[in-house]
Amino acid sequence: MVEIRPGRNKSGMQDNLEASSTNPDRCLVSEMQREPPLVEVVIEVPRGSFIKRGSTGKVDFISPLPCPFNYGSLPDYLGLDGDLLDALVLGPRLPAGTRVRAKAWGAVRMVDHGMLDDKLICSDLPPDILQCQKVLRFFRFYAKCKGLLNVARGRLGRNACEGWRDAAQAIARARPCGNSPRLHYPADR
């Protein structure tokens, strides 16, 4: 298990991030009502990798561009698409198979061949505005590429990035699988 170390954003400040329900494309910096949930993520695609693997280890596709984030899933939760709940972990490259405990500061709502496919955004510190914008740009591009791949695979349905959402709501939409432990909120300790 790797623990992500706290750091500061480029301005030297520790920002708090809250999703905007009125404008899902915009991240608002303000005080959060509560601490974000602490989740365990298993890294499937290390930052900088061209190979996208699923939670089973099977190659899903080879990307023409490297993944700018560590990408993985929560091993104890199924998303609405029937796969493990996706998560990306901001920060330095982590090897495939690494288990990371980090705070889920938000989620990006994706639609993949017509099915809702939330992606949790995780790190020890809240992402700053520039990181949020980079995440959204990546997922908008990813949705277009995935749409082309789905057409080639004969999968019909809409593909889109619908913007930034609340992490707790994305987790609440997921189904616990197996002997899933209760998610930890730092205030619960």
Automatic annotation (TrEMBL):
<dbReference type="InterPro" id="IPR008162">
    <property type="entry name" value="Pyrophosphatase"/>
</dbReference>
<dbReference type="Pfam" id="PF00719">
    <property type="entry name" value="Pyrophosphatase"/>
</dbReference>
<dbReference type="InterPro" id="IPR036649">
    <property type="entry name" value="Pyrophosphatase_sf"/>
</dbReference>
<feature type="region of interest" description="Disordered">
    <location>
        <begin position="1"/>
        <end position="27"/>
    </location>
</feature>
<keyword id="KW-0479">Metal-binding</keyword>
<protein>
    <recommendedName>
        <fullName>inorganic diphosphatase</fullName>
        <ecNumber>3.6.1.1</ecNumber>
    </recommendedName>
</protein>
<dbReference type="GO" id="GO:0005737">
    <property type="term" value="C:cytoplasm"/>
</dbReference>
<dbReference type="GO" id="GO:0000287">
    <property type="term" value="F:magnesium ion binding"/>
</dbReference>
<dbReference type="GO" id="GO:0004427">
    <property type="term" value="F:inorganic diphosphate phosphatase activity"/>
</dbReference>
<feature type="compositionally biased region" description="Polar residues">
    <location>
        <begin position="11"/>
        <end position="24"/>
    </location>
</feature>
<dbReference type="GO" id="GO:0006796">
    <property type="term" value="P:phosphate-containing compound metabolic process"/>
</dbReference>
<keyword id="KW-0378">Hydrolase</keyword>
<keyword id="KW-0460">Magnesium</keyword>
